[in-house]
Amino acid sequence: MAGPQFQPARDHLSLSEAFFDPVEAADFPETRLRYADRDWAARIGLGGLPDERWLAHFGRFEPFEGSLPQPLALKYHGHQFQHYNPDLGDGRGFLFAQMREPGSGRLLDFGTKGSGQTPYSRFGDGRLTLKGGVREVLATTRLEALGVNTSKTFALIETGESLHRNDEPSPTRSSVMTRLSHGHVRIGSFQRPYFLQEPEHLRQLLRYACQTYAPAIYDLAYGAEDGQGDAAAAPLFLRWVSANCAETVADWFAAGFVHGVLNTDNINITGESFDYGPYRFLPRLDPNFTAAYFDQSGLYAFGRQPEAVFWNLQQLAGTLVELTEQSALIAALQDYSRVLAQAVEDRLFRRLGLRASGGRDADQRFLQAFLAALKTSGLSFDETLHRAFGGRAWPQGDDWREVSAMAAGFAVDRPERLDHPYFSADRPTSLLIEEIEALWELISEKDDWSAFEQKIADTRTMAAAYGFSPVVADEGHRALEAAQGQAEATGAAAQP
What we know:
- The structure is a single chain.
- By secondary structure, this protein is α+β, with helices and mostly antiparallel strands.
- Helices cover 44% and strands 12% of the residues.
- It has helices at 38-43, 51-58, 130-145, 187-195, 199-213, 215-223, 230-255, 305-320, 326-333, 335-352, 360-377, 381-388, 398-407, 433-446, 450-466, 477-494; strands at 7-9, 20-22, 32-36, 72-74, 78-80, 83-85, 95-100, 107-113, 128-129, 152-163, 172-181, 257-258, 280-281.
- Strands 1, 3, 7, 8, 9, 10 and 11 form a seven-stranded antiparallel sheet that branches.
């Protein structure tokens, strides 16, 4: 049973069925628990859940008392590789349950992948390969360890079916995955009512998103006596989403992560990174490195992720243009580049284990020299950052001598971390595609999960050594402060 700390919720039901369809989960021939995130289970009041209840809730999707009585397949549209697709929606997943995070009170979702067909499956079977589930566990565990604002793979269950896929050897084993997330409202969720010319549903979604995820914006726009409703909320909301996404793009940069499919239906309004199909971690710093074999133009290459996400934010702005002044939306989007630039600097210093000096010019010169040397040298991304952590050991060479000399001017951040055994190892914990394929081969051919389990254990050791915490979306306060600052600056500039 769920513990007393478990706080069920059903907020999504306050939206109309314009945003979801009640559905049934697939009836799988077997359920075998392959992975469970016991740490997060303890944090949300499910720490004492026995394995049979994990299988009941996350393999057969028996509802939690007080949460959603039935799974909901969410409705949304989206741009896929910048081409609009109105035939999207949860095609092999659904929103299974909601709850409140103890302490913070933030709304949490249990979403699924591979849980069966829905009205939006089109020609798909609604299933997930076991390899896809294993890859997702590895991705989320590593990203969380590196301080990325990411969803968590909460449970992975093998389901006993044989699946046929065109892009991997078939038949292959099947699974169902449950992710723990701070929400599943996407840019594509706004695109659907806009495309269908349903302005009341668009307004309803904006109000719900503000009230649920950015209550400071909601209180100002809708609750104050002089509140102006949607017209005031829309640009503040866009500013908030833009800042959230900028922070996450910076997370990816410092983690050397390439998402692979940055479509608008894969961009969460909270900025939380999720849904890992094709992805890669950089072998070396290469702006043109792509994750998906079908991304032949490099649209979502590592170095183009910032502009890809900004393009998606522009599509969100386009859905809000009928609710407020276009100039206010344009001003809100301008925050993205400013937040991104500062966030990239913050994350790089964090990954290097150094403290920024506070002198912007000096900080930028050092980081630019570091990135230039890392790129031209062709050295391993992870190994270089591992050895340089806390300024311990820089590579040899003329470019690196300059970097090393500049680094001496920066203090070590939390120097006690250097005593952790992880930093005594010659090689860091990494997750290159070759490593994923090697551990999958053991699972596929011998049902040997030891390499997978060791990789998870090593990644948790890395997480403990770094001690990173993700920068998560606030309640909208920063958007209000930024808008106020912009208004004051504009007013001052207008003074004679």
